From TrEMBL:
Record protein name field: IclR family transcriptional regulator
Transmembrane segments: none
Domain IclR-ED residues, every copy: 75-257
Transcription recorded as keyword: yes
Keyword Transcription regulation in record: yes
Residue span, HTH iclR-type domain: 12-74
Pfam families registered for this protein in UniProt: HTH_IclR, IclR_C
Cited SUPFAM superfamilies: GAF domain-like (SSF55781), Winged helix' DNA-binding domain (SSF46785)
GO biological process, any: negative regulation of DNA-templated transcription
Keywords: DNA-binding, Transcription, Transcription regulation
Lineage top rank: taxon: Bacteria
Single annotated GO MF: DNA-binding transcription factor activity
InterPro entries membership: GAF-like_dom_sf, HTH_MetabolicPath_Reg, Tscrpt_reg_IclR_C, Tscrpt_reg_IclR_N, WH-like_DNA-bd_sf, WH_DNA-bd_sf
Length: 257
């Protein structure tokens, strides 16, 4: 990939490196040092130091005056809100998702693809004290999650083949087994109308998912999932109660012929 980027005359390497620095931060972390950022990005520490300085000046990072460590800045929050606002399906789906979460005592999420992951655009939880703790902006893999498998199953063949190449590059020797499971999941989706991941991504999480076609011209397809803790939701409950309810919800959000 780097060699391809180097040959692309339109590719701005300095910009790409700055974005690499921002992408090094993960949910739940308070702050990172230049050294840790360098380890995660593979960039020289001197380059990272210049990038973090510049990003801090622009408000995309903030620096702790005591430790010298960096955290994501408020400017990114403003950009994130603009991104979310551009997907108007959230305005339709949000109230229906909240209703669904309360009625079925589950967590429910709406996500779109970013590379080989799905990124959550909206998530609602039930009032249960124990629920799946993922939030807006959380990333989960396409290959092993219900929400990812549902997205994959609904893609046109040409798009799926392109995605297969990206997944193969990510997983290497693990890809043949994962590809076989994805193909099985896609066949199950065509037969049942939903995908499932029962303890495969997280051992204690049961989840089902459905594909959402593009809601409006120019917007990408997405997917929905409903999930709950394994001690409270059996396979039978997920298949016979939650999955049919999720399919019905999908029809209310984006009717599918």
């Amino acid at each position: 990939m780097q060699e391809e980027d180097d040959k692309d005359r339109l590719f701005v390497t300095a910009l790409a490196r700055g974005l690499q620095v921002l992408a090094a931060f993960r949910p739940g972390e308070s702050a990172l040092s230049n050294l840790e950022i360098a380890k995660r990005t593979g960039l020289p520490k001197s380059t990272v130091s210049r990038l973090t300085y510049t990003l801090t000046k622009l408000g995309h990072l903030s620096q702790d005056e005591h430790s010298g460590f960096y955290r994501l800045g408020v400017a990114l929050l403003a950009l994130g809100s603009v991104v979310l606002a551009s997907y108007d399906i959230r305005q339709v789906a949000g109230p229906l998702m909240r209703e669904f979460a309360l009625e079925n005592n589950v967590s429910i999420s709406l996500a779109m693809r970013d590379g080989t992951d799905m990124v959550y655009l909206e998530t609602c939880r039930s009032q249960s004290r124990v629920s799946v703790q993922l939030t807006v902006g959380s990333r989960v893999p396409i290959a092993t999650t219900a929400i990812g498998r549902a997205f994959y199953a609904g893609l046109p063949d040409s798009t799926r083949r392109q995605l297969d190449g990206e997944l193969a590059a990510r997983y290497g020797e693990r890809w043949p087994a994962l590809q076989q499971r994805l193909q099985q999941a896609s066949a199950e989706y065509q037969r049942c109308g939903y995908s499932a991941s029962f303890g495969e991504y997280e051992p204690d999480v049961m989840a089902v998912g459905v594909h959402l076609p593009s809601p409006n011209p120019g917007q990408p397809p997405m997917s929905l999932n409903a999930s709950g803790p394994a001690f409270a939701f059996t396979t039978e409950v997920m298949q016979q109660q939650v999955a049919p309810a999720l399919i019905a919800l999908r029809q209310r959000i984006v009717p599918v012929a």
